[in-house]
Amino acid sequence: MSVRNMAAFLVSSALLLTGKVKKACKKAHDGQYIISVYFHSPDKKLFTSCVKWFLKNGFTFLSLDDIENIANGKKTFPGSGVVFTVDDGWRSNKENIAAVANEYKVPVAIFASTQPIEKDGAYWWSYIGKAKNDGLISQSIRDLKKVPNEERVAILEKVKETVALPREALTVEELKEISATPYVHIGSHTVTHPILSQCPDTTSAFELTESKRKLESWLNKKVNHFAYPNGEFRQREIDILKKSGYTLAFTTVPDYLTPESLQKPFELPRFDVLENISFTENICRMTGAWFNRKLL
What we know:
Elements: H1 3-17, H2 20-29, E1 35-39, H3 44-56, E2 60-61, H4 64-71, E3 81-88, H5 93-104, E4 108-112, H6 114-118, H7 124-133, H8 141-144, H9 149-160, H10 172-179, E5 184-188, H11 201-219, E6 225-227, H12 235-244, E7 248-250, E8 271-272, H13 279-287
Parallel strand pairs: 1-3, 1-8, 2-3, 3-4, 4-5, 6-7
Helix pairs in contact: 1-13, 3-5, 11-12
C-alpha cells in the first residue's frame, strides 16, 4: 500500500472501531437519509463486496425510479435505503456490475457516454494520460479539465493521430443486453464526457440532448436520468435537462440524500468508491463516515 493508502486505512479503521460507521448506518436505518454511492470501473470483487456489505448490514437497495417517486412524494421516505450508480459505461461493467446486480437482485443505474460506446476506442482522458506519460504533451488530464472545451478537443484530436488505445466502453449491443436485464437501468452521461462548465451553450445543449436521443433510440425506452461528468454543471445545464425531459441528475458532491436534498432533483449528491484503496476506507466513504468524521 502507498503511504497515503496506509494512512487512510488507519484513519478508516479508527472510524470503524470507534463506532462512527455504525452511527452513520443507524441514521440511515432511522430514515434520516438515503445513502447514495457511485462507482466507475470496479473489479468484480470490489463491487460484490460493496453489495454484500450493505445487504449484510440490513440495507434495502433503491432504484432511480424509487428515488424519483420519493422525491415526488409518491413514496414515503424510507429507512435503510441505499442507491448504487455507475459513471461512464466501461466495458467491464457488463461482468463486474450488471452480472452482480442481477445475481444479487439489486438495482443499479449505469450512466453512459454515447460516443465511446458508438465508436471503437478509449475515453478521452485515457488518450491524454497515455500521451502525457509518453512525453507527447505537457498537459495533464487535470489541466485539460480546466480549459475551454474547444481547446481540450483540439489537443485530443491531435493526440489521437499518434496514440492508439483499445476499446474501453461497452458496445451498443452490450448496452442493449444489460439494459434488458431486470436490475440494470441506463442513464445519460453526455455524448463525449466533456466538462460541461467549460462548454459553450450550443455544445452543452448538444451533449445533453443528443445523448438522450441516442440512448433512447438504441434501447427503445425512455432515458430520464443523468449524471454530470466530473460533477460539474451550472444553472444552464439544469435548465437544459428540465427542458429535455430529464427528471433527475446526480452530482459528485459527497453527501446523503435527505428529504431536503431531494427537493433539488437535479443536484443530487453521491459518495464515491475508489478502486485502488482498502475496502475499509471504501466502507467509510460509502457510509459518509469518511467525509463527516468530524461531525458524527
